């Protein structure tokens, strides 16, 4: 395949990735208006967010098998169609439960859309071009959580929250037309059976872990139940791993975990992703509750983080060519930690320019770390293991991004308790302790990078010695 067509596929996948990630976060600032339309409390709308994320986490493991069985192009096209139609149904929903049902259907489309799209890019891109392709499909995952809140606030303030979902219709139609045109046709492999026990084990494990962390972040009178759910989730994770290692053709192919570079991006990279994803959750709350800004203006400040994401994009490939992955992950990881700690010390008395500079540098570092991790993950994975590695990586990445919000909420609640409060009405000190906790998580992630071989990922670094 020509480089130009590879770039076109990467751009198409990036666009669908942006659409899918945006819908996971854009409704945050629209919750009060949606709650009024459905005649329910704003807190009740959380089920619309969690149902979407849980559906993604549960169905993503099956994406590799579905793409291998029926071919990437028809599955990718069908996923875009389902996601787009479900978006329209979300916008037309007359009540909460019809909205939740549409969100679950939307999550089913998203679970196939992005992982299968990424698999197309991985299979059709030479190792020497992989760095640029991964950089292209990485930035939407960074931009969407930052752009989502201000965009949702703008649409809700000046039109209706329903347009948040209706806007996906023209985007989805365009993506579908391009998919038929530029995504290469492949022949499906109908000889591989579906691992139904593995599917149920993996899905229940994902639900248990994510639900347990979510329940811990809310606390309340049922806080005793959260550790139990989390413990059950952890036990199911071990059972799913055992099943995958002892089944001849498992749903989750874990062979790539034997490769140090891939294993590090799964284990240490997950902690980095959780820490980085917690920041866009904590910052708007800090600006609203600590600074007294409106939801829309707090979201606007996050655009500075997005500016940092964009500014780093043209620099990621040159930096990864100049320095080894280990050097980048360690050096940039330190900057991630420092900027997170910096967020703990900003206050309404801080100079606005200094706050904006901190947010901009934070955006630069988030972008670099995500791109380095996503590129290194597949740098040393051979073609025969790519499908399984991609499905498992997408599942772990989606869980990490989803858990980032829950971990941010949990850190804020624990910060309030440590500060002597009830954890329900955050103060500036509570936010400071929460950012300390998130930074500590990034420190643990950085500590694990020390075992990475200096030559790891050199296959995708042209000119590397």
From TrEMBL:
Entry membrane topology: Multi-pass membrane protein
A GO molecular-function annotation: transmembrane transporter activity
Subcellular location: Cell membrane
Listed GO CC annotations: plasma membrane
Domain (Major facilitator superfamily (MFS) profile): residue spans on this chain: 9-457
InterPro entries for this protein: MFS (IPR011701), MFS_dom (IPR020846), MFS_trans_sf (IPR036259)
Keywords: Cell membrane, Membrane, Transmembrane, Transmembrane helix, Transport
Domain of life according to the entry: Bacteria
Segments crossing the lipid bilayer: 47-67, 74-94, 100-121, 133-155, 161-182, 194-212, 224-244, 265-283, 289-307, 328-347, 353-379, 400-419, 431-449
Pfam families per record: MFS_1
PANTHER family: BLR6921 PROTEIN, MAJOR FACILITATOR SUPERFAMILY MULTIDRUG TRANSPORTER MFSC
Protein name (record): Drug resistance transporter, EmrB/QacA subfamily
Species: Arboricoccus pini
């Amino acid at each position: 395949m020509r480089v130009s067509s590879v770039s076109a596929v990467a751009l198409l996948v990036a666009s669908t990735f942006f659409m899918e990630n945006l819908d996971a976060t854009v409704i945050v600032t629209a919750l009060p208006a949606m709650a009024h339309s459905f005649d329910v409390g704003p807190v009740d709308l959380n089920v619309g967010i969690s149902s979407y994320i849980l559906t993604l986490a549960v169905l993503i493991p099956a994406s590799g098998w579905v793409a291998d069985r029926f071919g990437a192009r028809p599955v990718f096209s069908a996923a875009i169609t389902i996601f787009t139609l479900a978006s329209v149904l979300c916008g037309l929903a007359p009540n909460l439960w019809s909205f939740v049902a549409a969100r679950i259907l939307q999550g089913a489309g998203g679970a196939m859309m992005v992982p299968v799209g990424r698999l197309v890019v991985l299979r059709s891109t030479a190792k020497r071009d992989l760095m640029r392709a991964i950089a292209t499909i990485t930035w939407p995952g960074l931009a969407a959580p930052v752009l989502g809140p201000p965009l949702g606030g703008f649409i809700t303030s000046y039109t209706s929250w329903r347009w948040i979902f209706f806007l996906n219709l023209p985007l989805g139609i365009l993506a579908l037309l391009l998919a038929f045109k530029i995504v290469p046709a492949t022949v499906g492999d109908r000889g591989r059976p579906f691992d139904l026990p593995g599917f149920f084990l993996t899905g229940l494990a994902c639900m248990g872990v994510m639900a347990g962390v979510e329940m811990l972040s809310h606390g309340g009178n049922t806080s005793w139940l959260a550790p139990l759910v989390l413990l059950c989730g952890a036990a199911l994770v071990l059972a799913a791993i055992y099943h995958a290692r002892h089944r001849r053709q498992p749903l989750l192919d874990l062979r790539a975990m034997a490769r140090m570079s891939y294993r590090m991006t799964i284990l240490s990279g997950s902690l980095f992703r959780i820490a980085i994803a917690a920041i866009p959750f904590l910052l708007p709350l800090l600006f609203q509750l600590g600074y007294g800004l409106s939801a829309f203006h707090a979201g606007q400040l996050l655009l500075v983080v997005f500016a940092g994401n964009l500014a780093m994009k043209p620099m990621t490939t040159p930096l990864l060519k100049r320095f080894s992955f280990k050097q980048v992950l360690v050096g940039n990881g330190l900057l991630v930690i420092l900027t997170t700690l910096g967020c703990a010390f900003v206050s309404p008395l801080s100079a606005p320019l200094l706050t904006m500079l901190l947010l901009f540098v934070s955006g630069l570092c988030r972008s670099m770390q995500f791109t380095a991790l996503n590129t290194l993950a597949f740098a040393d994975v051979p073609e025969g293991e790519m499908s399984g590695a991609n499905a498992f990586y997408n599942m772990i990445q989606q869980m990490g991004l989803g858990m980032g919000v829950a971990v941010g909420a949990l850190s804020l609640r624990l910060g309030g308790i440590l500060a002597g409060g009830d954890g329900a009405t955050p103060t500036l000190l509570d936010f400071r302790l929460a950012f300390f906790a998130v930074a500590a998580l990034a420190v643990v992630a950085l500590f694990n990078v020390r075992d990475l071989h200096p030559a790891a990922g050199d296959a995708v670094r042209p000119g590397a010695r």
